[in-house]
Amino acid sequence: MKNYKIIFSFLLVVGYCNLHAQDRFYTKSGQISFFSKAPLESIEAGNKNVTCVLDTKTGQLQFVVLMKGFEFKKALMQEHFNEKYMESERFPAASFSGKIIEDLDLTKDGTYEVRAKGDLEIHGVKQIRIIKSKLTVSKGKVSIDTNFTVPLSDHNITIPKIVGQKIATEIEVFFSSTMVLN
């Protein structure tokens, strides 16, 4: 049932983008990565298939990433990530749905420091977040770059004590996307 909910949400994002294409910037190739620095081990992974939509009139910003799309250097880490920690069969995607707080004219070229406030959903748990980002509008494209931390406990992700020295309790997330008019 949860998989259908995620697929439906993804289709809504894509459909929303198609309804008002003249104001929507879109990509399916956004990039997201994370880094966990713990006393005994550092873990990093990336995903180059993030769907992202920005409505320049309303400031609405949404992204969806499939958890199984993260690639690790070690196959065993990827397996543990999906099966033990993220439970990717049960919670197949993470998403952010929010709105840029600042009142900007995003139709003009320039670089803007912005904050987006909205729901960050990971592991089936939504948390209201304000995420600071650098947004660049140039030659018909919009790029967004940001980094933020995610406390695992905020999203009910538990780390067994036996591996507590190998996985950080807060994960650094890096997101980058260049979108074009849809």
What labels describe this entry?
182 residues; alpha+beta; Lipocalin; eight-stranded antiparallel barrel
3D architecture notes:
This protein has helices spanning 2-19, 75-85; strands spanning 24-37, 42-55, 60-66, 71-72, 93-100, 110-122, 125-138, 141-151, 170-181. It is α+β, with helices and mostly antiparallel strands and 182 residues long. The protein has one domain (2-181): Lipid/polyisoprenoid-binding, YceI-like (Lipocalin). It has an eight-stranded antiparallel β-barrel with strand order 1-2-3-5-6-7-8-9. The longest helix has 18 residues, at 2-19.
Q: What do we call the CATH homologous superfamily?
A: Lipid/polyisoprenoid-binding, YceI-like
Radius of gyration: 17 Å
**Helix count, DSSP H or I runs of 4 or more residues:** 2
User: Which fold does the CATH topology refer to?
Assistant: Lipocalin
How would you classify the helix and strand content by structural class? alpha+beta
What is the first-to-last residue Cα distance? 30 Å
Main β-sheet description:
8 strands, antiparallel, barrel
Indicate the CATH class: Mainly Beta
List the helices and strands and how they pair.
Blueprint lengths: L1 H18 L4 E14 L4 E14 L4 E7 L4 E2 L2 H11 L7 E8 L9 E13 L2 E14 L2 E11 L18 E12 L1
Antiparallel strand pairs: 1-2, 1-9, 2-3, 2-4, 3-5, 5-6, 6-7, 7-8, 8-9
Summarize the structure.
This protein is of the alpha+beta class and 182 residues long. It has helices at 2-19, 75-85; strands at 24-37, 42-55, 60-66, 71-72, 93-100, 110-122, 125-138, 141-151, 170-181. Strand 7 (125-138) and strand 8 (141-151) form a beta hairpin.
